[in-house]
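Illustration 12: O-acetyl-ADP-ribose deacetylase.
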Amino acid sequence: MTGRFAITLVRGDITEQDADAVVNAANSSLLGGGGVDGAIHRRGGPEILEECRRLRASHYGSGLPTGQAVATTAGRLPARWVIHTVGPVHSATEDRGALLASCYRESLRVADELGARTVAFPAISTGVYRWPMDDAARIALETVRGTPTAVEEVRFVLFDDPAYQAFARHLG
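Figure caption equivalent — predicted structure in token form:
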């Protein structure tokens, strides 16, 4: 389970990724929202929301806790699964880096349980949760590199050039 894997960076739209699993930077309700979460729910269609509602009705009545991950179908997305994870809101007074790292570790754990070989991640918590991109890139790459997994390719799908450049600085 600790084989070598490729880490690639792509500038683009995570909803267009042909991967076994795409990671959704979800809110704890699992019922859709803005940013990546809204885009995945819109493009993936009602099947994703239906499974998320079932998860809320069973295991996650209070919502998915920050740093945890759970999978659903990918609906109409090119991927097979969506792995939903809830990133932390950035705080200038409290170090929440361990929670952000947990999003990546838990997503890879779920990917392994599913048998996913390719996983596409967004830059978790960098949108409305205001995590500084450079720090988010450092945490993401350090965590993925240090997490044992059977995944063969981890792809970071970055929406704009500043995000891509931040990840590229920390990849080298």
